[in-house]
Each structure stands twice: as C-alpha cells, then as structure tokens.
Design goal:
The structure holds 3 protein chains of 3 kinds. Chain A has 16 helices and 4 strands. Chain A is mostly helical. In chain A, the strands form 2 sheets. In chain A, strands 1-4 form a two-stranded antiparallel ribbon. A two-stranded antiparallel ribbon of chain A has the order 2-3. The longest helix of chain A has 27 residues. Chain A starts with a helix and ends in an 8-residue tail after the last helix. Chain B is mostly helical. In chain B, a hairpin with a 2-residue loop joins strand 1 and strand 2. In chain B, helix 2 packs parallel to helix 6, helix 2 crosses helix 10 and helix 2 crosses helix 11. Classes of the chains: A mainly alpha, B mainly alpha, C alpha/beta. Chains in contact: A-B, A-C, B-C.
C-alpha cells in the first residue's frame, strides 16, 4: 500500500487525494468484516463471493477504464478457468493451490490473448463496435458450446468440485477462504494499480484521448490494447477458479453474456477507471441484492431496478458512485478522460 | 445417422428426395424469414444512427407480449398482430425522444444504455408473466397440402409477410421523398441539415420504424414459439452478426446477412451434430466479419 | 407474515437468524405479489404444544421462478399440503414440522447460493427439492457433502444417483421404460424409434436405457440426437424422422425447445400418418402447454395420473383442491409433486422410527428401510441400500374431448423395481 501512496503523492502533492483514503478504508473494512460477521456463515460466504466477483469487475475495468476496450465477454475467461480447474480436480484429482491458481491465471491469459489477437490485431484497425460485439459473441458462443458438451457436464455444469487444498488443508466456505480471496484480491489490485501507473498505462491514457496521435508517435496501439486485454483475462481467470472452488459449482451461465454484463454493471456503478470503484460497485450491488432477496415484493422487481440504475448511471452519472466523492481533477488528471466515442 | 442398410430398406427413390428437398427449402425459408424480420429493424437503426440497439430483442418481446395481452383479454389474435407494430412504433418514438437521442455521439454508451433499457423491459415482462411460458395459438392453424407435402399455413404467412415488408421498405427508401431524405441524411447528415431536412425528426421516424418491424416480428413468431421473457434475447446475437455480416449502412446488407445467418442456423444441423452447429454459426459469422469488415454489400450504399 | 417473536424464542432456534428471515416469508410475500395463487401462510403457525419439543425444520428448495416455475410451484404447494396434514395429525414424534422455502429460480448458479442459506443460516434438518437433474447435481454438494444434511430428490430422473444420504422418490428409467416401451412395440406394433432429446444428462441416460429396452423387444433406434434446450427450429429433425420412416418418437426435448418441436412434428403430419409420440415426463399440467390437437394420442408412463382412481388418491386430490381451490399448479406426477409427497411421507416415517431423533445418520438409516402404505397412485417402499423406491407405474394415453385434454390409463404395473445402484 505504501508504495502506491508514494506514487500518488509524487504526482500531485498539493491536492487532497481522496482515492487513497477510500482504498485504505475499504481494506480496513474488508479485514474487519469477517470478524464482525463470524457467527453468520452465510454472510461470510457472501462476503467471499463479493471479493471474488470484485476481481471480475477489476478485470473489466482494465479493459474499459484503462484501454477503452468495451468487453462484453469478461465472463468467458472467468468461466473457462473455472471449468479448467474443476476438470483438473475431477479428472486428475489435483487441487493444490500452488498449481491450480497459476493454471487458472494462465488459461485466462492464453484464451484472452488469443481472442484479443483475433479481435484487435490485423491489417485494418477494428472498430470499437466490432470488438464489443466480438467479445459478446465469443462469450455467448462459449456458453452455448459448453451447455451442449457432455464431457464438461453440458447444461448441468460441473458440481461437487474438489476442494482447494494447501498442503493437507482444504478450503471450505468460511474465514480461511475469505482471507485467501482477500489476499488474492489485494495482489491483483496492486498489480493492476502498478500497471495503470506504469509507462504503459500512460500510453494507454494518451491513446484513450487520441488514438491516432499515439499511433503517429509510433506506438503500436492495438498491441498495447491486446496486452492489457490478456492481463485482464488472466485476472478474470483467477477469479473464476476461486469462484469455482468456493461455490463448488460452475455452469455454462458462468461464462455467458449475463455475467459479463453484470461485471460491466459493477464497474460502471462504482466508477470506471478507478479500480477501487469497481470493488465498491460490486459490494453495493451484491449486498443490496442479498438484503433485498428477503423482501419478496422488491425481490421480483429488483432486476428491473438494477436496469434502471444502470440506465441512470449511463445517462447522468457516467463516473459512477465514486464520481460523487472524487473530484474530476483527481480522476481525469491521473487517468485521462473517458473516451467519447471509442475511436 | 442412418446406416446404409436402413437407407436401402427405406425405398429412397428420387421422388422422395425431391419432395424432401422442397420441404427442407421451405423450412429454411420460413426460419430465414423470421431472422430477416428481426434483423431488418436492427439494421435500419444501425445504418441510420450508428447505434446497435441492445434492446432490440426486447422490442421483439414487446411485440409478442402485445399479442398475448390481446389474447388474454379475449380479443382476436390477428388484431393483436396488426396492433403490435403500431404499439411498438409509438413506444420506439417515445424512447428515441426521451433517451436514445442522447446516445448518438457515443455508440459504446448507446450499447450500454440500450442494454439497460432491454434489461428493464425484459425483467418487467418476466415479472408480469410470472416466469411462465405462455402458449399462443396461430390465428391460422394447420397445414395445406400440395401433392404429398404439408406446408404450415402460419409459416407461409410469415414468409409472405416478410417479402411484403422487404418490398415495402425498399420502395419507401427508394421511391418516396421521405426515403430520399433518409438516404440523404445517412450519406451526409450535415449537408442534409443545411438543405433544410429535419434530421432529428427523421431519426425519430427511423427508430420508430425499426421498432415497429421488431414488434411485427415478435407478433408473428410468438405462435411458433412460447412466449417467455427471453424470446427476443435468443435471436439478438445472431441479429447483430447478421447486420455486421451484411454491412452497416445499406438496406440490402442486413437482409442478406440475416438470410445467410438464418439459413446457416437452420441448415447446419444437417451437417454437424446440432449442439456443435449452434455455436459454430457464431464463430463462422464472426470470422467472416473479421476478414471482411465492410460486409457483403459495399457497392450501391443507400 | 405469520411468525411471531415468542414462537421464535420458544423454539430454541437462534433468534437472531430468524428475526430477519422470517418463517415462510417467501411464501406469503410471493402470494401477495401474485406469484403463487391462493396460498396463505397462516396454517404454518406452530401449534401450542410445540413448546414441548423443538420443531423439525424442513427445507424446500424448488423453482418458484424461471423456466420451470410451474412445476416448482406445484411442488411447493404439495409440500405445504403434506406438511399441514402431518401437523394437524399431531406432527412427527411429538414435533411439528416447520417449512422453509428457498427459490432455486431454475438456475443452478443462483440455486447454489440460495440452498446454502437453508443449510448455513436456517440449519434445516432435511432438504427436499430440485427438479431438473442440473439442479440436483448443483445443489447436492452444498447439501449432502459440504452441508452434511439429508437430501430428498422428488423428480423422475435419469438414475445413477447413488450418493449416500440422498434419497430419490421419483421414477427411474427402468420404472418408466419397462412398461411403456414393450407396450408400444408389442401392442401398437411400432418398431422404428427416434430419440430426439434436449442436451443434458437426463435424456442422455434415459435414452441409453430406453435403447436397451427397445432393442431387447425387437425394435430399432433410427436416430438419437441432442439439441440445445432452446432450439427454435427442427426442420432437420423432422426430415430425419420422415426419411427414416420413424413410427414412434420417444421424445425427451423439454421446454422451451419443446413447443416448436411438437408443432413442427404435428405440422409434418407425423401423427396423422400413424406415428406415435411418447413423452415419459408428460403429465396433466404439461398438456396445457400445447394446443390440444397437438397432444392427442400422446403416450406417457408415470407413477400417477389423475384418472387413476384408487380411493386414497381420490381423497388426496379432493383435499388438495380444497386447500388450493382453482390453482393452476396441479398435483401431478411429471412436476415431481407426487415424488415430493412421497418424500415428505418417507421422512415422516423415518423420524417416527427414530422416535424424534433428527441426526442425519439415524434418520438416513431409517429412511433406507422406509415404507409408506399410501400415496398418489399407491404406496412405495425403499429398496434397502439403494436409496430408490419401488412404486406403481401406469401407462396412459392423452385423449381430447371438445378441446379438453385428459389421460386414459391403459395399464398398471405393481411395485416396479427402480433397478438402481
């Protein structure tokens, strides 16, 4: 954390920075939460789920907030990695953490690398629309393929997934799993933060403002985009593996456009391009959903409310919840403006 | 699937094969018509405003739902089918005026916005339907017979309606002054405006027209399927690919694209096992679009 | 809302957990929202004598919303119905049964989380529910393995579920095929079968068994094919049925893909030309999904039809329609309702055996030798060590009178063996 803070202060020391405060507050709450909730296993389970889905939201934020790729397919990498580790557990009987999590990372990375190369690279620069629809199609086609493929359980998905192991310890839902997920999220977050603040991040920020100009400078813009897309895919894969172990179940729906667009919702709701925003968005959406699930009158119209919220965010508050607290200067100064039409 | 011995036993003569070919062609045509109806509205809006309407599937759903409401309240189904496009035209116009026009400058934001609209519509209808599937009978049930072959009357109605709609849309765009204005503002919006064409009004009209087509499609297909909240979603990704495949900015493009996708989707199960055929349609279409991003039609854009 | 604070504390259950999630909050609010017709939660109030012993907590996890909501709602109503009868008769071993509902929403992804609530938060003693095989496979791990709770699965299914502490109270492929297929081949003289199917595990395994029975009886399988669940277009399939000279379509396509399939099959003139359509999960509820003429002549084989007229079943139906007048969720077999009834009764019988001991091992041991004298379509009996039960099976055909469908029972087989595990 301190390393990140020093980055911050170096950039503009005069203005009060709010983002780091939010980040630290979130971390403190995240560490304290399971102790407060410890007697309610179902709430610890919920909190763990939120941490895992936050990674998916961060993965989308890297695509859209950092490099301007509208990905409607982040769940594809999430789901595929989840299936991979479920199959490794089922067919090879292997679920040791030192092997499976890197495997998940790798499968997300390779798959998103391939899809990214197909969609982004080539002689002609693809339109943003093509990339958006391409990711959507990829995710949709994969969902349909998996739901028909017997080896991977077809429409049933894979259940009774072997528990994640560290040595002889097996992770079931609860405190241990929570802190594992928190640790992984922290690593992912710091890595994403460094990526965003790196020279690469700067190039991408410039590119979001004016892609052509950057191209004239000699940057191979599409290559950078594809690279970030792969990294984002790797993160989604990691999240998918943890999800799979935690739920003990992975199904075709976990790689389809439904979950992909949910990730978009988390991110837009929280505030794109801020990394912490997507986490807050995930927390807000998931916790409210869980709380409202008990109030049946609202439960039935809750998806409608979510849709209206998304619409309102898109129309009136494109900076998300964070936009209310964080000045434009802090957002824009460091992260670049939102791409208006996505080149 | 058939073994050789079974084929021989099945007295497979030439006449049977020909009958069979006719029947297959009809089925492909019927399914393709459904696709064309759905895609046409999407394509018109995409071409004109550069917006990929993620709520298009839900407009189809609303068309179907209109028929359902008519059916529930005891009114004739055909009346619902006639009413659906008008209901959707009004709905589309209102939506364009209030929300959609804010998105013209930013196609990606438009995707998100229309996705949200679609979500709201879909989940509302799901709540209203109580998550159930509803069966709506065809206004003209049954089959007619030519020779030994049975043809579904309702599918025939769909095919004919589709042809009429295509012809009418084409005439509208090429033979009327409003069509001229539309083509003009598609070619060069700034110039069109400076010539005194009210492009905002045209956009409203176009969007309403696209919505009406979606409504008609939904109303016509609902007797073939069951009404459920996901009826439109099922076709959405295929419809997007059809538009990309045919080429944005043309009239013929989406029609051709839809024909290609529809025929592939209905025909591919003959060649590969059905579960593989399904995702394969998407992959094939996507690869073609990648290597021919301008679409089938590049000449004679509207 | 029917619960009150005093009762909560009286039960000795963790009051904190219950104060927020109230007993049966699901049901009553659902009915308020119009999702469930005609339910009122009032009857589940614990009787006064409840203070004597802690209640038995029974969790129902079924599909109240989503694609198969009609079946799920029927299940839920039957569970309420059966439990009410038990409570009115004095409960089980001096304890009343308390019902908790979680919606599995026809989506395994959502279900896994919701079922966990039953286990982790409400700490139920037994879970009944799940309709599709996808659902069972998704929720059995959180219930049986991770949750260490007894699980009763009520639906007819593909067999081969031999998990300890998981009891199946619906018919297996053997029970469904052993009567129906010989009837079609020997009595109706149809020998060329097509097996069009939805692509998931139930049709796969059912077909495997059906194929064996078809071949053993001298029939032949022309093709066996699997489609995405929502396939809208079946011309290729109809083509294969025509040129394969198929005379019996043994269908395992399910909604939403079923409606267009049946329509296209009917339009192709299959039935008019003497073809037979059979569909082993089709009950009275599902007939209403289609125009009557498309259903005429359909053969089904289930553990109960409403036209089965033994006195006990008739009384059961009467009491059910008294409790849920004009309900659209019928007490039928294909929706797992009969299995649900049997499940509740088997559990009751087991807890009686253990004299109120609710520990999983004890109840499970008693379940294993369980026997119920009466039920819809007759009694049932667990095959010891097999976690499946013997039951009566009926073959029936759909008839249409003035646009109304009904089933005519053609034959009955007594206490058919499930042949599982």
């Amino acid at each position: 954390m301190t390393a990140i803070l020093s980055w911050q202060t170096r950039r503009s020391s005069k203005v009060l920075r709010i983002l780091p405060i939010i980040e630290i507050a979130t971390l403190v709450v995240a560490i304290a939460a399971p102790f407060v909730l410890s007697e309610r296993l179902d709430l610890v389970t919920l909190a763990t789920n939120v941490l895992i889905l936050s990674m998916l939201a961060i993965s989308f934020d890297l695509c859209w907030g950092l490099s301007g790729i509208m990905s409607f397919g982040q769940a594809l990498f999430f789901g595929v990695a989840g299936y991979v580790i479920a199959l490794v557990g089922r067919d090879l009987g292997f679920s040791h953490i030192w092997g499976t999590l890197p495997l998940a990372l790798l499968s997300g990375f390779v798959l998103s690398g391939l899809l990214g190369a197909f969609l982004l690279l080539g002689r002609k620069t693809p339109t943003t629309i093509f990339v958006a629809l391409g990711t959507l199609t990829g995710s949709y086609a994969a969902e349909r393929l998996v739901s028909g493929w017997q080896y991977v359980g077809a429409g049933n998905g894979l259940s009774s997934i072997k528990l994640l192991q560290a040595g002889s310890y097996e992770f079931v839902e609860g405190m241990a799993f929570y802190f594992l997920a928190l640790a992984v999220l922290l690593v992912v977050y710091i890595a994403a933060r460094i990526l965003m603040r790196s020279q690469l991040g700067l190039v991408l920020a410039g590119m979001r403002q004016n892609e052509e100009r950057l191209a004239f400078f000699g940057y191979r813009v599409q290559l950078f985009k594809a690279l970030v897309f792969s990294v984002a895919g790797a993160i989604a894969g990691l999240a998918g593996a943890l999800y799979s172990y935690h739920q003990g179940f992975i199904g075709p729906g976990n790689m389809g456009p439904g979950l992909s667009t949910t990730a978009v919702l988390y991110c837009l709701f929280g505030g794109t391009g801020t990394l912490i925003g997507p986490i807050l968005g995930t927390i807000a959406v998931e916790v409210i959903t869980y709380a409202l699930a008990d109030i049946d009158a609202i439960k039935s119209i809750w998806p409608v409310v979510l849709g209206l919220v998304l619409l309102a965010v898109v129309m009136f508050q494109p900076k998300g919840i964070l936009g209310f607290f964080v000045s434009d200067r802090e957002r824009v100064g460091s992260y670049g403006a939102r791409p208006q039409d996505g080149a | 699937m058939l073994k050789a011995g079974e084929l021989r036993a099945g007295s497979f003569n030439r006449l049977v094969i020909m009958d069979f070919g006719v029947k297959l062609a009809f089925d492909l045509l019927a399914f393709t018509s459904v696709m064309v109806l759905i895609v046409l509205g999407l394509g018109v809006v995409a071409s004109m405003m550069g917006i990929f309407n993620f709520a298009h599937g839900e407009f189809v759903l609303l068309g179907a739902y209109t028929v359902f409401i008519f059916h529930e309240s005891g009114l004739p189904i055909w009346a619902g089918i006639v009413a659906a496009p008008f209901v959707l035209a009004l709905f589309g116009a209102a939506l364009e005026r209030s929300i959609i026009r804010r998105f013209y400058a930013a196609p990606i934001i438009a995707m998100l916005g229309t996705y949200a609209i679609g979500l709201v519509i879909r989940e509302t209808v799901r709540g209203l339907l109580g998550g159930h599937y509803k069966s709506i009978p065809e206004p003209l049930p049954g089959v007619f017979t030519i020779g030994d072959l049975d043809f579904s009357i309702w599918r025939t109605v769909i095919v004919i309606t589709t042809l009429v709609v295509i012809a009418a849309s084409w005439l509208l765009l090429t033979r009327t002054s409003i069509g001229l204005q539309i083509r003009g503002s598609l070619e060069n919006p700034a110039l069109a405006r400076s010539c005194g064409i009210a492009t905002p009004r045209l956009y409203t009209l176009t969007f309403a027209f696209g919505s009406a087509l979606a409504g008609l499609a939904g109303a016509l297909i609902v007797p073939l399927y069951q009404l459920s909240a996901d009826i439109g979603l099922r076709f959405l990704v295929q419809a997007f690919l059809s538009v990309m495949l045919g080429g944005v900015g043309t009239f013929e493009g989406p029609v051709l694209g839809a024909t290609a996708v529809g025929a592939t989707a209905a025909g591919l199960p003959w060649l590969v096992i059905p579960v593989l055929a399904d995702p394969l349609v998407f992959v094939i279409a996507l690869v073609i679009v990648k290597f021919r991003p301008q679409g089938f039609i590049t000449q004679g854009r509207l | 809302m029917t619960s009150s604070k005093e009762e909560k504390s009286a039960s000795g259950a963790p009051a904190r957990g219950l104060s927020r999630r109230q007993l049966l909050s699901g049901a009553s609010a659902l009915s308020a929202a119009g999702w469930i017709a005609g339910t009122s939660g009032g009857w589940l109030l614990r009787p006064n004598w409840a203070n004597a012993a802690g209640p038995i907590k029974m969790g129902i996890a079924t599909d109240i919303t989503g694609a198969i909501a009609p079946s799920g709602n029927a299940n839920w109503q039957v569970a309420q119905f059966a439990v009410e009868q038990i409570n009115q008769a004095g409960g089980v071993a001096g304890k009343p049964i308390e019902l908790y509902l979680e919606d599995t929403a026809s989506d395994p992804k959502i279900a896994v989380g919701n079922v966990r609530k039953l286990i982790q938060e409400r700490k139920v003693d037994v879970v009944l529910g799940g309709i599709t095989s996808a659902m069972r496979q998704a929720i059995k791990d959180p219930i049986v393995n991770r949750g260490r709770t007894l699980y009763i699965y009520p639906q007819l299914y593909e067999g081969q579920e031999c998990t300890k502490h998981l009891y199946c109270t619906g018919p297996t492929p053997a029970q469904q095929c052993d009567e129906l297929i010989p009837y079609i081949i020997n009595k109706l003289g149809k020998k060329r079968f097509a097996l069009p199917s939805a692509n998931y595990v139930w049709p796969q395994l059912l077909n495997k068994y059906a194929r064996k029975v078809i071949q053993a009886n001298g029939g032949e399988v022309v093709f066996e094919e699997y489609y995405p669940l929502d396939q809208p277009e079946y011309s290729a399939t109809i083509g294969k049925i025509k040129d394969g000279k198929v005379d019996c379509v043994f269908n395992t396509v399910i909604p939403p893909g079923l409606q267009p399939f049946v329509k296209q099959l009917y339009e192709s003139g299959f039935q008019r030309n003497g073809g037979v359509l059979s569909c082993v999960y089709y009950d009275e509820n599902l007939l209403n999904y289609h125009p009557a003429h498309e259903m005429e002549g359909l053969y089904s084989c289930l553990d109960y039809f409403q036209s089965v007229n033994d006195p006990f079943s008739a009384k059961l139906q009467e009491a059910y329609s008294k409790k849920f007048p004009d309900t659209k969720y019928l007490f039928t077999a294909g929706s797992a309702s009969t299995g649900m009834y049997r499940g509740v009764k088997f559990y009751e019988a087991a807890v009686k055996q253990t004299k109120g001991d609710l520990a999983r091992e004890a109840v499970s041991a008693a379940m294993d030798k369980g026997k119920i004298a009466d039920g819809p379509g007759g009694g049932a009996e667990m095959v010891p060590g097999k976690m499946h039960c013997k039951m009566n099976m009926y073959v029936a055909q759909c008839k249409v009178d003035a646009g109304k469908t009904r089933y005519d029972v053609i034959s009955k087989a007594n206490m058919v063996d499930p042949k599982e595990c």
